[in-house]
Amino acid sequence: xxxxxxxxxxxxxxxxxxxxxxxxxxxxxxxxxxxxxxxxxxxxxxxxxxxxxxxxxxxxxxxxxxxxxxxxxxxxxxxxxxxxxxxxxxxxxxxxxxxxxxxxxxxxxxxxxxxxxxxxxxxxxxxxxxxxxxxxxxxxxxxxxxxxxxxxxxxxx
Length: 157
Fold this sequence. Notes:
Elements: H1 2-20, E1 21-27, E2 33-39, E3 41-42, E4 50-51, H2 55-65, H3 67-73, E5 80-89, E6 95-103, H4 109-117, E7 122-123, E8 125-127, E9 130-143, H5 153-156
Parallel strand pairs: 3-9
Antiparallel strand pairs: 1-2, 4-7, 5-6, 5-9, 8-9
Helix pairs in contact: 2-4
């Protein structure tokens, strides 16, 4: 009975490990083998990926990178625009991929993507206290820098 339990748990352990990452081997035209390890990226983790210094720090970097594109485009009636961005952060804390999920205005998308790709090291997401590849969504509000402190109550509504 003990041997069967050990065998079953070993099979389950290797089956789970094989699911967490897969290895693909390809052969090119010269006959060279290339081995690629494909790791899963998780959307639900125990601890979300975090930026060193906090999310406010990375959002201030994005704000700095988008100043030029906001100046020309956010005149007139548009006072703000939201952009939802999805980041893929690997288990080493590097930004691997940046995708725009939803954008009310697309004039700053390139600046947002570049600033997030160059944002530096992140603290990766955790599952069972182990770093994993994970997705993180950020909502960026592109606000017009114009601020009128003399608004009356009716204009705020």
